[in-house]
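thread: overnight batch results

M.L. [08:02]
morning all. the overnight job finished for the chain we discussed friday. pasting input first so we're all looking at the same thing
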Amino acid sequence: IFDRMDGCCENFRLIGIERDPDKVQEAGDKFGGSQVAFITGDVEESDFIDDMLFCFPNLYFHPSVKTSLHTLNRNFRDIRNEIIVHLTALDDYCKKFLEMTYEHKGYREMAAAFQKDTHIECSPQASRDHVKSLKYSFTNAITNQTEEITCELHTKFRKHNINRQKQDRIYFAPPRPEILDGKVIIVHIGAHL
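M.L. [08:03]
and the structure it wrote out:
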């Protein structure tokens, strides 16, 4: 169970996912009326993404994420908690990523800083040929032009993956203020691409 005291919203705590309304009310009472989202119990992949939209306001989940969850090398329920840890770190780091964007830091520097601060392995895509397949188009809110964003940064899951060479990952792009309201863009949660 995760207690998210330093959530991105002042009155937000991530405890877990729970479908029982009595337990949700009980937790709401316990935490003084704070918004409470639950992520424990038997949550399927499709419900998980719907819940993540609420739980992580600094993350944008590309539609490809729903299908990518089916590529995990481990059972979703076995790795779900580690996914939550990674998404929480990415959500909490959004502001720091934006600062590094303003400072014109590269992906390698951003990945190294994220890894140092969160202790979650993070790096850009090693194969430069494969980077082409990690480009996604988004609209720049200032220019109203379509821009390609390379979503090659990825975190690597450790606890629940047996094959060190083919670890499950979260592929993402750091935020840019003019794209998707400055959210971290998540494009894949699943097998190594």
